[in-house]
Design brief:
- The protein is 84% helix and 0% strand.
- The termini are far apart.
- By secondary structure, it is an all-alpha fold.
């Protein structure tokens, strides 16, 4: 562990990864509960397309990708609000179209190169010092905004009709969630990759929901799971020279399986105790 932490690129990855893991876990709970969890997959494909174009044009990838993905999040919300194009169809339209455009532009200009593969599958080596500074600032901004508007986000997540009746601007907070998600997706792509970043949003939330029902407890547990899984994934990646993104996702899958098992056993014991109490009562 000490040897791993001695490398500057690992240090940069852990700093950015911890913050991105927190952001994705917090937002993931809201997205899963709103049945809009695959927005991460759609926006990651848009981010890949933007970064591919930026690479071809020799522009700063993150600087270009963030406004493009934020714009895509606006478009997804508008499309999902259309009676003819609902959530999953809107995501499929935007994600596949953006991915196709990115691959086409890259193949016409220079072919799929190492940089683009890093965006697709993630790499801790892809994080530069300038990326760390920008990522830290944006991640902290996401966390602060989430905490600041926690109560409003909670209300919008569970019952939009009730939230609207109480005077909460539902459209604004839905847009805020989408924008924060877009920023998180772009920041996490460098390490996890476009094909896997949505798992960073889905798995911690799904795991914590196996054991907790209170929203606050789910959020806290999800954040803890996400950070622990990221650190474990980086360690696994370093030990076996495996891709970072895949290693983090594998750890998340293992944790999800353990939480499902615990939930199952708890249900069995609860049912058994309940049956015993009924027998005693009779």
């Amino acid at each position: 562990m000490l040897e791993m932490l001695s490398y500057p690129f690992i240090q940069r990855a852990l700093i950015v990864g911890t913050l991105v893991s927190l952001c994705s876990a917090l937002l993931g709970v809201n997205l899963v509960l709103k049945r809009y969890s695959m927005i991460g997959d759609g926006l990651s494909h848009v981010a890949f397309s933007a970064m591919a174009v930026a690479t071809v044009m020799n522009w700063a990838p993150l600087t270009m990708a963030i406004p493009v993905v934020v714009a895509a999040s606006f478009l997804l919300l508008r499309l999902s609000g259309n009676s003819k194009i609902k959530g999953d169809s809107a995501i499929a339209l935007v994600s596949t179209g953006a991915l196709a455009i990115g691959i086409f532009i890259i193949s016409m200009r220079s072919g799929i190169n190492t940089d683009i593969n890093n965006y697709m599958f993630g790499s801790v080596l892809a994080i530069s010092k300038s990326d760390v500074a920008l990522s830290v600032i944006l991640s902290l901004t996401v966390l602060v905004l989430y905490v600041l508007f926690y109560n409003k986000i909670f209300a919008v997540t569970f019952d939009e009709s009730f939230a609207r009746a109480t005077g909460i601007r539902v459209e604004f907070y839905n847009m805020l969630i989408a924008v924060l998600t877009a920023v998180t997706i772009v920041l996490g792509m460098r390490m996890i990759g476009a094909l896997l970043i949505s798992s960073l949003i889905i798995f911690p939330a799904m795991s914590s929901m196996r054991l907790f029902k209170c929203f606050r407890n789910v959020v806290i547990c999800s954040a803890a799971i996400s950070v622990v899984c990221f650190f474990s994934g980086v360690a696994l990646s370093y030990e076996y020279s495996a891709p970072t993104g895949a290693s983090v996702v594998i750890i998340n899958i293992a944790v999800f399986a353990v939480f499902c098992l615990v939930d199952y056993l708890r249900g069995k014991f609860t049912a058994k105790d309940a049956s015993k109490s009924i027998i005693k009562h009779n």
